Amino acid sequence: MTKPLAAAALAALLTVPLAAAAPAAAAPPACTRMTGPPPASPPPTSVDTLGQAFFCVLDHYYGGPGLRTQDLLKDAFAAYTRNLQKRGADVAGLRLPALTGDREADWAAAARMLGTGDPVALRAAIGGMVAGLRDNHARHDTPRPPRDGGPVGTGIVGASGISGPGLDPAARPPFFLTDVVEGSPADKAGIRPGDIVQAIDGVPVWVGETLNPLLVEQVQQPSFTITLKRPTTGRVRTVRLTEGPLTPPARTLRVRDVSGVRYVRLPGFYEGAADEVIAALRGGPKKVVLDLRGNGGGSPREVVRLLGAFAHGKVTSHFCGYDGSCTPNRTDDSVPLLGARLVVLTDRRCASACEDFSAAVQGNGIAPTVGTRTAGAVSGPASAWLLGDGSIVALPSVRHLGPGKEIIDTVGVPADHHAPMTALDLATGRDPALRKALSLLNG
User: Fold this and answer.
1) Mean pLDDT score of the chain, rounded to an integer?
2) What's the pTM value of the predicted model, to 2 decimals?
3) How many other CB atoms sit within 10 Å of the CB of residue 122?
4) Which of 79, 207, 320, 430 has the most CB atoms less than 10 A away?
């Protein structure tokens, strides 16, 4: 779990009084496609930066032609004023001006109301405007240089109840850990996959039947207490965790043979992933389990290349424009067929390109899926656009649809064979999904 962006460095800035008689606002400079690292010392977020983001969304987001400028600016002003209020810096007379739907006129009215603006609140406004798109592949972020001395963290890097980039709205108790980095503070404290989380800093993780929305933020703090129950013994203990140096596991395949089947676990569709899988399968058993559980996605190009090892001449998905025009994506038929039978394992952490692959094998009858429904976080591939303060806005320019033009985003790909992993399964080394996959291949 990555640390949240920090705005504390600018939190002491005071709001500049509104420019009541400001001249007509000039058009902000256009956002530019991200092609390299951002500037080392960018200026603070300005009203022009917010304007850049506003026009960037309208010009480059898939749904930009259908967006109402009133809605974008409402979301921006809501986040702006909330940030001011949280800091005790609200401004008298600051309100959303009358808007007409004309993008240039509406932006000019908004800019006049903001005056010189507050840098911290303006950054929050950009985040609020992008969050208002309600698109899991749209985000506002600030690229950070690598940390001196390497990464740090507690080592808790996976849990149930996670679906794609956030908490799973369909999660059910219990909430348990799925991945702990070897040698990390959590590992040294004896925390293991399968441990059930009961509270963090004394706060229960469940609010009724819903995961506490503050949960992710809590475990991203430099230090916190976590109350855990071991499912094999029922023992409950509270551990103080403080972040420390981490050696993240390499993004490499896990390959082994079991019961005459070649098992491959692919952590992501990173560059070169397809060829790594194909090399691992070539010359091996003609029965294959591809484990995509926890695979957060990656490149669509890797998806079609890997699919080309199992089928040719298939439409794998569609990238569609706002006007309804769609371009089909197809298997990479330059890849020699392996001639292998395939079963794919999925879960709620299988997102984006992982769902692209899962929908393609299922929709084309290439392979059954086993496990649970995927995340439903596959709106479309996003491009990064650089803003004047060194932050980026990531925006999908097309909408992803499945091989039959079905909507997968927000819905997910249902498993053909339901076989969820429980806390007790993890704690005892059992794997119901793999067991089911082996039975399908060997039955």
Assistant:
1) 91
2) 0.89
3) 26
4) 79
